[in-house]
Amino acid sequence: MLDYDKEADVYDASRGGEARAAAAADAVLGLIPDGARTLLDVGCGTGIVTRRLTTARPALRVTGADLTYGMVRMAAARLPGAVVLADSRRLPFPDGTFDAVTSIWLLHLLDRGDDMGAVVAECARVLRPGGVYVTTVDKAAAHDVGSDIDAVLAPRPRRAAPDAAARVEARAAEHGLDPAGRARFTGLGQGRSPRRTVADLRRGWFTQLPPGAALTERFATELEALPDPDRPRPDPVFSLRAFRKPG
User: How far is CA 127 from CA 3, 110, 117, in A?
Assistant: First the structure.
């Protein structure tokens, strides 16, 4: 797991910046009803997407929440007075507070116990009847674009994805949420190059490949042999699911 306090200052630049944020916000808003007036962005990170949700719909009052102080500091600069430091498994809001709740690039991080289920339960709890919950699913799979990099990394060990669509849909159903739509968007500026992937390997980006391990170094050597080491391969395409709380 990355240290998101340390990552906060460079997080956006290393993940597609404003172009990726714009694509994400547009796709999310396409699943949020026009009549929504309040929205909670759970795991808002630096607020780069959260701010765009606000600016695109001035009538929508948006609140951001994140567990990491460094991320909240960044988000609060973008949305003064609208960001709280909070654990997404225990949100500090009463039942039925929000017309919409979002969790973008969050559930894939929740690989301890049933943390993913706990977050979905909380998002459902703070959602008003008739409200909509929107979340990303299958994040890791989005990065497998069929490139030569993916071919090298294909044999790597993988953990079960906490945000696998079927798992998220099952948890949503357990907490009374009905499927309400889906969308996809391109993670602009996030296409991997061989050189960048080697750097990510050696800093522990791939959770099942510890830095310095023999298998990690084998993959690094194979990646270093690929042509065009600085050419980004195709961008990932991320998936969204929307769920509605019955009125």
Answer: 30, 21, 15
Q: Rounded to 5 degrees, what are φ and ψ at 208?
A: -95, 5
Residue 116 to residue 110: CA distance in whole angstroms: 5
CATH number of 4-144+159-191+234-244: 3.40.50.150
The structure tokens 């780069």 sit at 48
Give the model confidence (pLDDT) of 160-192 as tens digits.
Answer: 999 999 999 999 999 999 999 999 999 998 999
- Strand partners of residue 243: 133, 179
Give the confidence band of 3 by pLDDT, cuts at 50, 70, 90: low
Token pair 């019955």: residue: 246
CA torsion through residues 145, 148, 154, 157, sign? negative
Query: Is the CA virtual torsion 111, 106, 126, 5 positive or negative?
Result: positive
What is the identity of the amino acid at 247?
G
In the chain, the amino acid numbered 39 is L
Cβ pair 140, 161 in contact under 8 A: yes
Residue 77 phi/psi, 5° resolution? Answer: -70, -30
Give every strand in the sheet of 178-186, ordered side by side. 83-85, 61-66, 38-42, 98-103, 127-137, 237-244, 178-186
Three-state secondary structure call for residue 182: strand
Phi and psi at 222, nearest 5°, equal -65, -40
pTM (whole model) above 0.70: yes
- Taking the domains of the chain in order of start, what are their residue ranges? 4-144+159-191+234-244
CA angle 232, 211, 156 (to 5 degrees): 65
